[in-house]
Structures are given as C-alpha cells and as structure tokens.
Amino acid sequence: MTLQFVKYHGTGNDFIIIDNRDKRVRHTNSEWIKKMCHRRFGIGADGLMLLENHSEADFEMVYFNSDGGLSSMCGNGGRCIVHFAFQLGIIGNMTSFKAPDGIHRAEITGDSEVRLQMNKADIPKVVSPGYELDTGSPHLVVKERNVAEINVSEKGRKFRNEPAYVEQGINVNFMQRMDDGVLNVRTFERGVEDETYSCGTGVTACAITAAFLDNKNEAEYTIHTLGGTLSVSLERKNTKYINIWLKGPATKVFNGSVDYYDEG
Length: 264
Description:
Blueprint: E1 2-10, E2 13-19, H1 30-37, E3 47-52, E4 60-65, H2 75-88, E5 94-99, E6 102-108, E7 113-118, E8 121-122, E9 125-126, E10 131-134, E11 138-143, H3 152-160, E12 171-177, E13 182-189, E14 194-196, H4 200-214, E15 218-225, E16 228-237, E17 240-249, E18 251-259
Parallel strand pairs: 2-3, 11-12, 13-15
Antiparallel strand pairs: 1-2, 1-18, 3-4, 5-6, 6-7, 7-17, 8-17, 9-10, 10-11, 12-13, 13-14, 15-16, 16-17
C-alpha cells in the first residue's frame, strides 16, 4: 500500500506527517515508523505524526519519536500539524486539537507562523543539576555560560541516564541567559536520544525557568535554537504558569509517497 506524506520542520525540528483519518497506519507498527524516521534507510525525521479524527476537537495529533514509540507532547510538532491541517482544509486560521497531553488551541498568524497554546505548568522543581518541570513532556533545564561550547549529545545523554530519569527518560535543555528577554537553548531529546535542532516543549520549559528565576508574573522570551528563533509568552498565577503561547515558523519541506507495510 502506498501512503502520501508531508515533511515539515519547525526551526529545524523535523517531522513526517500523514493524514491517517482512514486509520491505515497502525499505532503499534513501531518498526515501520522507526525505519521511516531513519536518516539513512528512511525519509528521515525527529518524529512521525498521524493526523486523525477526534469527536471533541478539530483533529487529533498522534506523535511518535524516531525510535518508533508513542511519545508525549511535542510543541514544534503541534505547530507543524496545525499548518498541515490548514493545508488540508480541515481547519481555518484558528483551531483546537487533541494532543498527547490534552486539548490545545492554536492560531495561524502568517504564511508559515503558528501560535500554539501550551497547557498549564507547575513552577520548576529545583534539583541538583538545575530545574525540573513538565510542559507536556518532562524536562530538565541546566544553566550554562556558553551553550555553543557544550557537547550536547554527550552531556545530555549523561543527565538523561541518571538513575532518577533512566526508566522514563527526560529531555535535557542547556540554557544560556543573554540580554533581558533573550535565551540561547540547545536540547537533548529522549526518544531521539541525541541533540535536535529545536524543541518546542523544551524552549517552553526554559522560558518558564527564566521567568521563575526573574520572579516575573508576566514575561515574553525570545529563544534562539540551532534551527531558528521561537518566542514564548506566559503568566504566573500562584504556583502555576498559565496562558503560555509558543510561537514560531512551521515550514513545509516537501510532499512524497512511501510504501506502507505491516511489521506486526
């Protein structure tokens, strides 16, 4: 069976997206998904997403890491699949959709720019390496003086495999404070098990951590990643961060077709 797919990236965080409203792709076909994400033997991507029907939202986003396993929320992936749904004519400029961590609202604000509302988050937990929090996916934020000098794959893998995180995994973000309101961030992602060019839930975690350290009840941060620039705005209410919006480009790269086969 031949499937149509679209390749997208959000500031270098790249995804294969398939319209699966007819349920042709099984969620348990992890070996095929893993092969499609492989950069030598497949299409190549940080993850694969299926767009499916949902009874209480415009559509559902089903997200798989490049290791073939179902994953938690992906912020850049969420922005890209919103743009894909718009291209399909499923939605207009505004939408609500179901993601792994619940319902999200989003808005297309330009030709390829998408604003995505992230779900509420608790204040960061101070731990020995840095700050731990969940922004739809679990994150560790580690402050650094110069993120350009870090071996992210090596250092991120070390933190990710600490006894506290080895079973469930954690995404590790190295954050450098620049001028007021500007952050440089590099991220090691679980499931990919390497550095990615960008991570939407990761830059959200870094913005929350920066607001926590700055003791700000309202803030907006510009975040530079290897793949481009994102922005995060947020508010704090007691021990929660609310009204969190992740904004940045969602870029279509190419269309294609691929043979689908059931790995069992």
